[in-house]
Design brief:
Radius of gyration: 17 Å
Number of helices: 5
Strand content: 15-25%
Number of domains: 1
Strand order of the largest sheet: 3-2-1-6-9-11-12
CATH superfamily: NagB/RpiA/CoA transferase-like
Number of strands: 12
Distance between the termini: 32 Å
Order of helices and strands: HHHEHEEEEEEEHEEEE
CATH topology: Rossmann fold
Helix content: 25-40%
Largest sheet: 7 strands, mixed
């Protein structure tokens, strides 16, 4: 086969992922009753043995049409667990110990973030190795724990440094689930994916190598 007709497998993979992202975004935007359905998903998450056993839990704060975690944050804070949230700095996710809802403010892109003056407080900075459970957003998932985000790699960079003993729990509306998410060797699988319909057992990281 000549160089002019050779196909680039990485380009094909990128295009396939992009088509899945576009369809998932359409489905997610059309998801009815996002608040009550999100509450169903959070209730499933909070009943998981891994969640009950965890002391330090990382919640993401939803943006746009993601499963809405913000409505569960107050109850999570009242539960006695140490709640940690991520925020983005120069393309990297930093971790913040959230102790009260008034520590958040609307930041860039209308995203709830830790108040700027609190981010440098020493006890507010949490290393990823201290997390006992990580709740992970995504644009699309499959039922084996495959995931694709927006393609910027923020969560991939963070999860690379998490302990293998720390469960990774993907949160998704059922409409975000696909038969298979195309993956590469460096992609990280969830241990479980939780939707309003079920809890799906993923491959996780230990089985993915």
């Amino acid at each position: 086969m000549s160089a002019g007709t050779a196909r680039d497998p990485s380009s094909d993979l990128h295009q396939l992922k992009q088509s899945i992202r576009e369809l998932a975004h359409q489905r997610r935007r059309a998801q009815p009753d996002k608040d009550p359905v999100s509450q169903q998903i959070l209730a499933r998450v909070q009943s998981l043995p891994e969640y009950i056993a965890a002391n330090t839990v990382m919640y993401y704060i939803d943006v746009r049409d993601e499963v809405r975690t913000r409505h569960g944050l107050a109850d999570a804070l009242a539960s006695g667990k140490r709640i940690v949230i991520p925020y983005c700095v120069d393309g990297e996710l930093e971790l913040f110990h959230l102790e009260a809802m008034d520590e958040l403010e609307v930041g860039m892109y209308r995203i709830l973030e830790p108040r700027a003056e609190l981010r440098s407080v020493p006890h507010k900075k949490i290393p990823v190795e201290q997390l006992d459970l990580i709740l992970v957003p995504g644009v699309a998932f499959d039922r084996m724990g495959g995931r694709t985000g927006h393609g910027k790699g923020y969560y991939d960079k963070l999860l690379e440094h998490a302990s293998e003993r720390t469960p990774l729990i993907g949160l998704a509306f059922e409409c975000q689930l696909f038969p298979e998410i195309p993956t590469q060797a460096h992609d990280i699988f969830m241990d479980k994916v939780v939707s309003e319909a079920a809890v799906y057992l993923g491959r996780g990281r230990r089985a993915a190598g």
